[in-house]
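Hi there, hope your week has been kind to you so far. Would you mind checking whether the tokens look sensible for this chain? I owe you a coffee for this, so here goes:
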Amino acid sequence: MKALLANCSVSISELKKNPTAIIDQAEGEPIAILNHNRPTAYLVPAETYERLMERLEDYQLGLLVRERQNEKISAVEVNVDEL
């Protein structure tokens, strides 16, 4: 059986009955959606998803900064006032 990446899980049938109550009970945490006792999807509240996307963007920007730091040797020095 696959490991669940959430502390809360619910069957698709239960989710259909009252999705708002299930989201509220999860208190912002992801919810594993199960089909035949296997995770088929994860339901993440909008606020949690937005924070996750911000972190991912920060991580990607950090990688870009590190990559460009290695290019510093070939950089051209520019005076902003001369532009």
